[in-house]
What we know:
This protein is an alpha+beta fold. Helices cover 33% and strands 19% of the residues. It has a domain at 48-124 and 161-175: FAS1 domain. The protein has a 7-stranded mixed β-sheet with strand order 2-1-7-6-5-4-3.
Amino acid sequence: xxLSFSVAAIALLGAAxxxxxxxxxxxxxxxxxxxxxxxxxxxxxKDIVDTAVAAGSFNTLVAAVQAAGLEQxxxxxxxxxxxxxxxxxxxxxxAGTVADLLKPENKAKLAAIxxxxxxxxxxxxxxxxxxxxxxxTVQGATVKVDGSMAGKVMVNDATVVTADVxxxxxxxxxxxxxxxxxx
Length: 183
């Protein structure tokens, strides 16, 4: 009798469980949250030498900087402003001038010419405005930077054809002539 009572109790419990009563709903799965995409790696700005190399129109200037032993200086912390003559500007010099300047025995003369194209500070074109300035170059002499002509900036007798080429250690202003220091 005890056994039949136990079986009956179990049968009642089982019947109650199958009688259509629903079990409480299972909790909803947590929403899938996608991880944010990794930020792109920061683009490292190139120094003045790397910027000139990447431009592709300063091969003669880069070769001259290397021959004069100025590459490490122009890769340094700066800041610098470089008035950078294009390859065409060097090509416009009298025949044989560049080849002569690149000779080891002319390293000091070449360095003097190149450092005459460099200011020991970063000067953006917006700082010139319509003024005429006479900043000292790394070589020691001054250059005449004339912004008084509408839409045109001159450095001595060279015209700035592209201004404000940013580099990690300064700025490059592209000029159409090689400027020579006073003798």
